[in-house]
Amino acid sequence: MSRPNTRTLSLRAALLGALLGTAALLPAAAQADEQYFPLQSYRVGPYAAGGTGFFGGFIDYLTLVNTRDGGVNGVKLTWDECETQYEVERGVECYKRQKNRPGVAAWNPLSVGIAYAMIDDVGRDKVPLITVNHGRTDSTDGRVFKYVFPLLLNPYSESSGIVNYIGTREGGLEKLKGKKIVVLYHGSPYGKETIPIYQLLAEKYGFSVEQVEVPHPGNEQQSQWLSIRRTKPDYVVLRGWGVMNPVALKTAQKVGFPADRIIGNVWSNSEEDVIPAGDAAKGYTAITTQASGADYPVLQEIAKTVYGAGKGNLDDKKRIGSVYHNLGIVNGILNVEAVRIAQDKFGKRTLTGDEVRWGFEHLRLDPARVEALGAKGLFHSINVSVANHEGEGRVTFQQWDGAKWKVVSDWIAPDWALLRPIIEKSSLAYAAEHGIQVRDPAAEDASN
Amino acid sequence: MEWQFFTEVLVGGLLSGVMYSLVAIGFVLIYKTSGVLNFAQGALLLFAALTFVSLTERGLPGWAAILLTLAAMTVIGAAIERAVLRPLVNQPPITLFMATLGVSYVIEGAAQLLWGTQVHGLDLGIDDLPLEFGGVLVSSFDLFAAAVAGAMVAALTLFFRYTRIGLGFRAVADDQLAALAVGLSLDRIWTAVWTAAGVVALVAGLVWGARLGVQFSLSLVVLKALPVLVLGGFDSIAGAIVGGLIVGAVEKLAEVYIGPFVGGGIEGWIAYVAALGFLLIRPSGLFGAKLVERV
């Protein structure tokens, strides 16, 4: 037998060492519990201003939870970003790439198009898809859309919330009778989605409604506003998107329509919508589910703990507390609390997507819990259930004073009872078309 | 009064059309001298407005920001000509068009990389309040934009008629081989024309930026210029103006008077219908040079 030479021994030792090292690392990696948030973000392209704010806020909140609490019950939160530029095909590519990493908690694309494209996939992969303040309205019916959550506000509730607010301004919903409202909407499926709802609300409350389309992207609205001036409405509801919003405000000024009679929807409510309009936006009011400003305890903690340590996600600290940043933070709170609630049932470890889905379906944050989270006044509450994936979010209204948004209403509840039958009609038709077994909430609650 | 309303719609449309012409003139300058349909004109417009507003927000006075932006546009125009188009000389028009398409994406990306993704307001100090003329409301800002467009056309006319380099432009536009034969430097003239297109982009960018806000969608205003070019002709500044006026008026009148019968929202495509119809009757546009080829 020949003796192995020193060189061979060294090689073997190195290989053995590498193997042992790997073996030592493997259990460590498996033991390190992590919950992963894949982010299909958009930081370049036409919608980058909204994307940087929203995903910046979301990441800031996850960073706060990791830094302050060491994660959720010791489970560290992780994330990575995949750039979509708000394009559906890129969003789907990101989904295919990111879903392979273990411990996916939930998807949060903040894009109607990408969310629609993922609905079948998330059902197959059993991971929740969160469409905070947007998404398809009938996904509110969790009996059919088990993995989709249009948290806080769907488009129908938004329309009802706006009409309720106009009612309060007029001194009661009964005062809406005989009033004239124009809805100026973006010429896209998103813009057109609420046409029947405004018609329904007009019939219920006795006001007349005229719905006027603005072709995409909305950088010319002269003819629409001249027609509006001729109609002489009491209010104009602005259901815009992107450049359409400042152009609407500027053109309204051009034809002499007062800004304080224009009420913006949830995608017409940000600083990016009013700053380009300059003085024309003063007095403009818009709906929101989360108030803006940085005075809330959770925002102050983020400023101190996250930005103080140089870990903040926004390049420009002046954007802390802006509409999109705060929406990202609220979205972060909802995601993290869903994980926490699911951990209480399934154990303090990395959860599966389906377990996190259960957490979302039991996401009940009353005002006291919201206050405990440092978000009193930032948002009102949420009460998600198997049947109701929107969660009865309240809305408030903010008015632009030329420099900042100022809350000008109480928290308002949309007319969910009026809307629910329409939502169910649509969701049940979807279930029949796709062969989906409609869930029985009572039976599921009993088994939990 | 119905006639007052009609007049308002018509005047508003004509003034909107002037805004489209501002963008179309940039296309014409390039096409006239080099035969290239420069799809990057919208991106140049975005870059110019974003650079100007970012510099002023950093505390530079307006005049200094204008000068620095002009310098930047000169460098970009010269760089595009030298690095992209000169190596592609004698390639088919579709190749050159695709090259400018690529350039537009590069410029859009570079603009966001350099100046960020935020939306900016741009105040040129012109109030956009309605002025009343005999019961007809007209936008003061639109009148200002029309004056700017008029001044720009006058300046370009003087430049083409009375300056050495302007005459060179015209010679190249008429016949490149003849211009070469008499000793004109095509490279120099093309560099100058790209620079001029950059200047036009700055003017258009400031006017459109003041109206829309300085944001990514500024680059989409090229879509408004395309039917203008088809109508007016790709190589005529006068055509760009007249085409703009026609497109603006057609869009607004159609939206107001035909839109309600077909569900509204038609002004985005009605201009293209008009342009396509015109293309069938007069392929070179109202003022475009007729193509005569020896066979």
UniProtKB/TrEMBL annotation, chain A:
Gene3D superfamilies: 3.40.50.2300. The keyword Signal applies. InterPro entries: Leu-bd (IPR028081), Peripla_BP_I (IPR028082). Pfam families: Peripla_BP_6. Keywords: Signal. Residues 1-32 form the signal peptide. It comes from the Bacteria. This is ABC transporter substrate-binding protein.
UniProtKB/TrEMBL annotation, chain B:
It is found in: Cell membrane. The keyword Cell membrane applies. Belongs to the binding-protein-dependent transport system permease family. LivHM subfamily. CDD domains: TM_PBP1_LivH_like (cd06582). The chain crosses the membrane at residues 6-29, 36-56, 62-84, 96-115, 135-160, 192-214, 226-250, 256-281. The keyword Repressor does not apply. It comes from the Bacteria. PANTHER family: ABC TRANSPORTER PERMEASE PROTEIN, BRANCHED-CHAIN AMINO ACID TRANSPORT SYSTEM PERMEASE PROTEIN LIVH. Keywords: Amino-acid transport, Cell membrane, Membrane, Transmembrane, Transmembrane helix, Transport. It comes from Azospirillum melinis. This is Branched-chain amino acid ABC transporter permease. It is a multi-pass membrane protein.
